[in-house]
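Example record for the data management plan.
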Amino acid sequence: MSRDTSGTTLRRREQAPQERRTSLLPQIRWADAAVVGGIGAAGAFALSAGLLALGARVMARLPLVPQMGIRQRPDLAVRAVFPDRVHLDESSESRRAGYLALRQGGGGVHLRLGPVEGRPTPRTVARPVLARDTDAPLQVARTNVNGFFWAGTPWTAHGLPTEDVQVDSPVGYMPAWLVRPDEAAGSAPGNADTWAIFVHGHGSTRGEALRSIPLLHRLGITTLAITYRNDAGGPASADSMYHLGSDEWEDTEAAIEYALANGARRIVLLGFSMGGGIVLRTSVRSAHREAIAALVLDSPAVDWQDILIYHATALKAPRPMRRLALWMMTSNRGARIVRLHEPLALAEMTPDFYGRTLRHPTLLFHALDDATVPPAPSRRLAALLPDLVRFEPFEGASHTREWNRDPGRWERILAEFLVDTLDLGVDVGALELPLRDPASPPLPQSVGTRV
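Corresponding structural encoding:
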C-alpha cells in the first residue's frame, strides 16, 4: 500500500564538514537496510505471488479432473449388523430422512435401507434393512453409500430388458443403455417414439438413472442412459479433462441424433447435477431444438461460477485466488496453465444467459440442503422464466437425493409434468408411486456393482 507524503516538508540546515560526515553514517546504514529490505520484500512478494498462482491452479483443476476413484472411498462406518436393521455412525448422511443403500467390497455386498427408526446410542442411528441384493453379509467396517439406491443395470435392478448400445460422438463411441417400453409388461401404448435421454453428473455414472427408469418405462417412453467423454469405459477428450458442460453437450447432441435415427419423434432431456448443466447447454445449442420437447433437471449446475466461488469460499481461499482460478478456466492463456485444450464458456452457463435463451418447458428439482450445488441459481432461473420453468424444491434432501427423500412425491411430480407437457394419455392418479417399491425383493440377477 503506498503512503501519501505530499504534505511532508523536508527541511535541511547547514552542517560543518565533520557533522555532515557523522550524520551521513546512519543514512548509509538506512540505505543499506532499505536495499536489503527491498530485496526481502521483492522475494516475499514473488513467493506470495507464486503461492497465489499455485493455489489458483489447484483450485481451477479440482473440478476439471475426473474423480472416479475418490467417489469410491468408504464414507460411512457400520457399527452393528442385525437381520432386520443396521446401526451406523451418526453423520449428515446417515441421519438424513429418506432411503439410502450401502455397498461394500466393490459391490460384493449391497443393502437397501429404510428411513431412520431410532438412535441406539447418542452417536449412532438405526435403519431397517429393506432388501439384500447380494448374498454376502454386511461387515462391521467402513462402507460406501449408494445414493442411486439401486445397483447394476436396468436389467439387474428392475428386470427391464436392456440393450448395450454405442453412441457415435465427436470423440468416439460412447456406451449407453437403451430400454424400450413393453406393453405386455404394462407400458402405456403409443409413446415409444418419445425418447428420454439421461445425462449423469460430475464423476457419476449411468446408474444415476436407475431411480427414474421404471416410471419412464411405465409411461411408455423409450429411455437412453448415456455416458460422455472422460467417463470410465468411454473415450477421453483431447485434454482428458471435464469441461463442465462447455463441450460435453456435444455428446448429448450425438445421443439426440442417435435417437432420431432410431425412431424418436421427440426428445426429453433429463440431467442430474453437472448433467443438468449439460442438458441446459444442449437445449440452447442443439441443431435439433425443435425435436426437444421438455427438460427435467435434478439439482442442476445452472451457474458454474457460482458453484466454484461457493466452494472456494468454503475453503477460505482469498478473493484474488478465486478470481485468478476463474481466469485460468476461461481465458486462452489461463487455459494453458491448467492444461485445458480450450477455455470454458462459463459466461454462457448462468441463469441470466439461460433466461434469455431457454425455450423448452422445464421441470427443475433442487434439494434445499444441497451443499454441492447451491439452489440459488435454480431459483433465479425459475424466477426469470416463471411460465417455462416449474421449480420443485425438496426440503431436507441433499444433492440429487430428492428421490431418496420422498420417492413417491418425486415420481408423481415427474409423471404429472411429462403427461401434461407431452400429452401422454396416462392417468397419473391411477399409478401407485413410487412405481418400484424401495423394499422390492431382489431379483435373481440382482447385483451390487456400480455401473
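Summary line stored alongside the record: The domain at 158-304+339-430 is CATH 3.40.50.1820 (Rossmann fold).
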